């Protein structure tokens, strides 16, 4: 379980919350993005959104938090009910991981929203391999919990 926790912490530490950026085209026709609008130039506000990988990181983090809560005596909330059933939140996160794994393994191209620009991009093989590894770990964790 420690490797899964380490992966979740690494992913969470790379999380960048949604922010507003500005987009403009200079005199040479080059498109620029920056956190500050340019002086004397009209710029379009672009709101970034969270990517699928950060959603996966959030789901992994929730699973680890639930696991930590179960380990603390006297804690009320748990991922499992008194009869041993898995919570709906955990089940929903695990279902999302399985859908993500199916997309990563079955589709020749996988697109996601770039968290910096807000535009859709095709995952390169390196990013895809990293996300695939994280998703497989999450699904494995879910399977071990019966979720």
UniProtKB/TrEMBL annotation:
Disordered: annotated segments: 33-93
Limits of the DUF4124 domain: 9-59
Organism domain of life: Bacteria
Secretion signal span: 1-18
Record's compositionally biased regions (Polar residues): 42-56
UniProt entry tagged with the keyword Signal: yes
Residue stretches of biased makeup (Basic and acidic residues): 59-75
Keyword Signal assigned: yes
Any matching Pfam family: DUF4124
Transmembrane parts of this sequence: none
Keywords for this protein: Signal
Name under which the protein is recorded: DUF4124 domain-containing protein
Species of provenance: Alcanivorax xiamenensis
